[in-house]
Design brief:
Elements (H helix, E strand, L loop, with lengths): L1 E2 L2 E4 L3 E4 L3 E2 L2 E4 L2 E5 L4 E3 L1 E4 L9 E8 L6 E7 L2 E4 L9 E3 L10 E3 L8 E8 L9 E8 L4 H97 L1
Parallel strand pairs: 6-15
Antiparallel strand pairs: 1-4, 2-3, 5-8, 7-13, 9-10, 9-14, 10-11, 12-13, 14-15
Membrane topology: Single-pass type I membrane protein
Family: Belongs to the myelin P0 protein family.
Protein name: Myelin protein P0
């Protein structure tokens, strides 16, 4: 991206000087407009040097049906100049700002004769190396269907992707919540089963003493009955003896 300058001094050989960086200019590859409308020809640049008062911006135009390139705009010494010769002299507006590294222009009231290639060239002394950048303008009676279809397809694709991501997110959240609810129910069922088993065990333990008491009462009643019978038998035996 840069070039090295070598200085030859007699008797000293070659000495390496500081490298010089080339200026970089950027434009769109192509822009589209319709007859009677306006279009912005954007141009930006990057320079390794501070933007000086000597910065210059030049726009050139080569018609689609021609081979010659003509100059249509200059920005020099802080002032914009539209060339008085040519079809753009009353239809061009400077909207750039070199201090923001912007050299854009606007062309109004487009016509078919504006079809062609526009070149943006920037110099910022001492940074004057580098290549210019070109943008091709296509002027139509109306925007071609193919561009509208492509734009609609791109927008639809982006919206579809966003919707798909949202749906997937909701599905993941729904499945997670459902799983959590299932686990909660299982834990609740397990806790309920434990409580029921503990209640049954406690009820069994609570019913054991009455059974023992009943058994004791039954043994006591049986003992008393047997004692009565034995007493009765003794009485009868005594009576018989008499």
């Amino acid at each position: 991206h840069g070039t090295m300058l070598w200085l030859h001094v007699q008797g000293e050989g070659y000495h390496l000087l500081a490298p010089t960086l080339a200026i970089h200019v950027y434009t769109h590859r192509e822009v589209h407009g319709t007859v009677g409308s306006q279009v912005t020809l954007a141009c930006s640049f990057w320079s390794s040097e501070w933007i000086s008062e000597d910065v210059s911006i030049t726009w050139l135009f080569q018609p689609e049906s021609g081979k010659d390139t003509i100059s249509i705009f200059h920005f020099v010494k802080g002032q914009p100049y539209v060339d008085e010769v040519g079809a753009f002299k009353n239809r061009m507006e400077w909207v750039g700002d070199p201090h923001r590294k912007d050299g854009s222009i606007i062309i109004r009231n487009l016509d078919y004769t504006d079809n062609g290639t526009f070149t943006c060239d920037v110099k910022n002394p001492p940074d004057i190396g580098g290549k210019s950048s070109q943008v091709t303008l296509y002027v139509f009676e109306k925007v071609p269907i193919r561009y509208g279809v492509v734009l609609g397809a791109v927008i639809a694709g982006v919206l579809g992707l966003v919707i798909l991501v949202v749906v997937i997110g909701y599905l993941i959240r729904y499945c997670w919540l459902r799983r959590q609810a299932t686990l909660q129910r299982q834990l609740s069922a397990m806790e309920k089963g434990k409580l029921q088993r503990s209640a049954k065990d406690s009820s069994k333990r609570g019913r054991q003493p009455p059974v023992l008491y009943a058994m004791l009462d039954h043994s006591r009643s049986t003992k008393s009955a047997s004692e009565k019978k034995s007493k009765g038998g003794l009485g009868e035996s005594r009576k018989d003896k008499k």
